[in-house]
């Protein structure tokens, strides 16, 4: 079986041959995403007077295109969709407004995930899991609550909070913090102008001034877009379809992200002995998706390639995997039918250095107790 050593030996060659951003391909992807979104919203506005079943069908397509929009936004954050940084930033901002997520701020946190993939001592994101020791220390009620909070049925709610609530809440907190900071400085220095009083401001969560400005710009553009769409489509129809499509797309995205890192026996370690390339091979899955779903998810199923090097564009991932298929033969494969089981892997076994399910952990304890 190919090892981490063989990946390290070939990594430079792989990256050199496949890190080839192509502006033409990128623009085609942008057009085949944003134009269908516009057509779908036009169709939704027309469909309400024809049949709500037709509206529902269009919303299903809208969910898929919103999912694709988020993945392309994610790629702009890595600077891999286009050749130039300026184009990646500009298009990333647009997709950030479409999906409701401040792209620059999100990408900073996402880079941390890439830098610590497989290191569950450092990862503290929205999908962080606890160790088996921490789970054992919980009361039965707390254990049930922990498991319920990670139920697949809560995925749309998680998508709603992640994409619609949290970015707005963070922005409002930042605005209030800026106002308090400016007011405090003006009390100390009455002659200070409002613009000067904002100097030295930092977000309560530790975000930089650049991140705050981007977050504010994203939220203002997002609000303008939603007001315009509510006027064009109709407030009630737009709100229902927009909230539903974004929440469902967010929920699907969260589930995809989860099973790409949390699955039975996935590589999971702390700081000691952690290896970036081993995490890409053993702690990241290869999702075996139908072609049409690979298109809507912009080839993010080739996640092992993406974690080997985030600089490889999505339209080069499949070719990279095919060329070096023998090298990635040991990467865990997950089919759609395997997703429910993978979603139950919500514990980190520190001793075994792997992800496990509650059922497997309890079985292991029962055997040890005999």
TrEMBL record:
The chain crosses the membrane at residues 26-44, 50-67, 87-106, 220-246. Keywords: Membrane, Transmembrane, Transmembrane helix. It comes from the Bacteria. Residues 53-328 form the Fatty acid desaturase domain. InterPro entries: FA_desaturase_dom (IPR005804), Fatty_acid_desaturase (IPR012171). Pfam families: FA_desaturase. This is Fatty acid desaturase.
